[in-house]
Design a protein that fits this description.
By secondary structure, the protein is an alpha/beta fold. It has one domain: Rossmann fold, CATH 3.40.50.1820. It has a 9-stranded mixed beta sheet with strand order 1-2-4-3-5-6-7-8-9, sandwiched between helices. The radius of gyration is 21 Å and the shape is globular. It holds the Pfam family PETase. Keywords: Signal. This is Chlorophyllase enzyme.
């Protein structure tokens, strides 16, 4: 009888250890992989092409909204992207790019200010999204995914995208040819830095310096071959595809997009025709493809 009790206790200890290991592994997976954004259609790997939604635009006093028609038609909720403009321009200058994001299922809340660097109006865009989602008279009512919010911007707005990510409600940032007035040490979200090979306003070496400072978060640096500051930033141009893919992964859990950035043979990492330089820091390399 004593031998039976000993064996039983041993089996129980083994099972308990196995269960603890399984729970720990599941917890690590939950941290590394965002929950599925149900109902958002796949686009394959056509990041630069228009998405499955028809975009709508609503110009307000403080923010301009770019969003999909027929939101929630498949029961889905739509992630939010708060947008920051470059110096001296307003969202209309980026209409092509922001309509593109909306066609992929994002609700873009763009700050109507030509001076975005401190990201005050950008962060106010999250408050607006929360209000619209709670308003029964709004087309956004109950259709905004407030658990999935990204910040993005170009030039001064690229710097503002990093500053906006200080807000704990922001999950990731895309800094397109960003100005220097930001401190990535203040954020704990993954960040994508996009630079232009021939950008004479925000030199690639400056963007690389910001990327190097982001060693405490998963960060990647993508330098677009042949890109200038205005040729890609205003319309999105060649920046459109990688920025869309990054947002689709982190805010929609798009696994096709994940494969572009992570894993040993990630798609963008080896695309020398599109990128003159592509870098991933140690934390980004730890994310499986």
């Amino acid at each position: 009888m004593r031998r039976y009790d000993t064996r039983t206790a041993l089996v129980r200890r083994i099972l308990a250890a196995a269960m603890a290991t399984t729970v720990a592994a599941l917890a690590m997976t939950a941290v590394a992989t965002p929950a599925q954004a149900d109902g958002i259609p796949s686009v394959g790997r056509n990041w630069g092409a228009a998405g499955p939604y028809t975009p709508e635009v609503s110009v307000g006093l403080v923010h301009t909204l770019y969003y999909p028609q027929n939101m929630g038609s498949h029961g889905e909720k739509h992630p939010v992207v708060i947008w920051g403009n470059g110096t001296g321009v307003v969202p209309g200058a980026y209409t092509v790019l922001l309509r593109h994001y909306a066609s992929h299922g994002f609700i873009v809340v763009a700050a109507n200010t030509p001076m975005t660097n401190f990201a005050i109006t950008m962060r106010g865009g999250i408050d607006l999204a929360e209000q619209l989602n709670a308003d029964p008279s709004s087309v956004f009512f109950g259709k905004v995914d407030l658990d999935r919010i990204g910040s993005a911007g170009h030039s001064q707005g690229g710097s503002a995208a990093v500053n906006a990510a200080v807000d704990p409600r922001v999950d990731t940032a895309v800094a397109i040819q960003p100005g220097p007035l930001n401190d990535v040490d203040l954020i704990d979200e993954p960040v994508l830095y996009l630079a232009g090979q021939f950008d004479a306003i925000v030199w690639p070496i400056l963007v690389k310096g910001m990327y190097n400072d982001a060693d405490h978060v998963p960060a990647e640096y993508a330098e677009l071959r042949g890109a200038t500051h205005f040729g890609t930033g205003i319309s999105g141009g060649d920046m459109r595809a990688p920025s869309t893919a990054w947002l689709r992964y982190w805010l929609m859990d798009d696994q096709n997009a994940r494969a572009e950035f992570f894993g040993q043979n990630c798609g963008f990492c080896s695309d020398s025709s599109q990128f003159s330089d592509f870098r991933r820091n140690g934390l980004a390399r730890q994310i499986p493809g």
